[in-house]
Amino acid sequence: MEVERLFHGTSRHDRAATIELHATWLSFLRHHHALGFDRAAEIAELERRLEALRGQFADRYAA
């Protein structure tokens, strides 16, 4: 999944909601990893990319 492609053509409000939705989803995946779902490296990479997007979003729309 390409996290960055999720935001193509979306509004600022939609982007913020999408970032938070994916943060929640990654939290869910991390929880299942603790229960034996073995994709920790992939989840960690997605979390890093999501945090970078969160920072870019905050910088772009800071008033």
Automatic annotation (TrEMBL):
UniProt superkingdom: Bacteria
Identification of the protein by name: Uncharacterized protein
Originating species: Azospirillum argentinense
Taxonomic classification: Bacteria, Pseudomonadati, Pseudomonadota, Alphaproteobacteria, Rhodospirillales
